[in-house]
Amino acid sequence: MADTLSSDRGVARERVAAFVNDEATERMVRQCLADLGAAVTSVRRGDVVTATSHLAGERTPLALIVDITGVASPIARLHELAEVCESGLSVLAIGDSNDVSLYRNLLQTGVSEYVVKPVSRSLLQNAIRQILGLGSADRQVTGATIVTVVGTRGGVGASTMAANLAWGLAAKTSRSVALVDLDLQHGACDLLLGVEADQGLVEALLHPNRVDDLFLERAAILCDRKVALYASRTKPGSLMNVQPEALALLVDRMARKFQYVVIDASRGNDGLLGHAMELAQHRVIIVDQTTLALRDLLQLTQSFVPNHAGQRNLVVLNRFGEPGASGIAIKAMEQTLGLTIDAVVPFEAKSVIGAANAGEPIVKSGGPVAKAILAIVEDLCGEHQADEGKRWWKFFGE
Questions:
Q1: Of the candidates 343, 346, 345, 367, the residue with the CA atom closest to the CA atom of residue 355
Q2: What pTM did the predictor assign?
Q3: Domains and their CATH numbers in the chain
Q4: pLDDT tens, position by position, 38-59
């Protein structure tokens, strides 16, 4: 953006400042900035007009996020903003108009990125990465997207989520997906997908240096043309001499062959869990409406803080509504933890149990549960989500 003021004001410039006009977008912006570790930031309620008024008397940040929703003549207002800003400013505009001509005009004014509401977390995060000069969030080393799914405690539905996310990613993108079940004694992914576990995964973890493309082909349990499961079943109580570092070697090899690797991480092995969380770009943490789950969610998010750009924790509230009125409300959960619930999957025992008993992914059946899981799939793919202000669960005692 243009600059008509001196850049020497004697005060350090903020890295990012944001002015957004609704609670949902404000919460999303705060979460994305936290995920990216963007220190020295401020997020205020307002729009481009508010930003112009504020920055007329303050130093310009290095990057600016402004809301143009409902603003009359947004291009003119952005020109007014430019008049009070210093040079070297990158601007991300957020609005509700999906108009190509508006987008072109915004770029001509010097806006770096434009995101249309409702914004998904992944799209917004990538846009913020661009204005911060962080580049793409994709991993260039592996060439694949790694998704780790972990439950805050047993019974919250992490394995069901992992299996269905793997299936959904394959169906949505037509890309190949590897599903790794790290529960070597009580894993459920094979049953959920109607196949039978073998010893391939154990062999891979015990002898990671032997793993090559041929090994991966032979060890794969084909659940679908695009989904390959890696799972093993060992006797309860048996000691597995598996080195956690073996998982990194295995996933690195898988990432050369598959476009997505989904890991169903078990809480039973801290070493494997730590590596599974470290490897992932997306950590999908499953929680329910209980105090035990909230305690363990807080522990997980504190133990596994995103430590590089593009890595994030995605909190999924599963089995929503199961405890009835005795369950902890969503808003209370978010306020207690200081975290955002990114997705909500309703409790629908009949369809979930029926699909599991039949060995069929529930995402194939349709219905509220399938729809909610497929929305998470879209988020992992970087596509828009449903309007946060109009989610079905907002009407049920948030």
A1: 367
A2: 0.66
A3: 16-131 (3.40.50.2300), 145-395 (3.40.50.300)
A4: 666 789 999 999 999 999 988 8
